[in-house]
Amino acid sequence: MPGGLLQAQLSVLRAAASDVWQGRWPKSYAFTFVAELGVLLGGLVTLKIAGDMLGPTGFGEYAVARRAVSVLTFPLLLGLGISIPRYVSLTVASDPSGKTAAAYSLASLCIGVPLVTTFGLAGLIAPTWFARLFYGDPRFGFLTGPILLAISGLYAHTLVYANFRGRLRMWPANLLQLGNLALAPAVAVLTSRGNAAGAIRVTGIVWLVTSAATASWSVLRRGFQAPPGAVLRKATLDLLTFGAPRVVGEFALFGFFALPTFYVAHTVGVEGAGLFSFALSLVQVLSSMFAAVGILLLPYISRQVATGSWERIGNVVSKSLAASLLVTLFAVAVLELMMGSLIPWVMGRTFAPAVVPARWLVAGALPFVAYTLLRDPLDAIAVWPYNTINLGVTLLGVMAALWFGNVWFSPAPAVALGMLLLGALTVLAWRRALGSARAGPGALVGTVGGGSELGV
Question: In terms of residue numbers, what domain contains 171?
Answer without folding.
Answer: 2-442
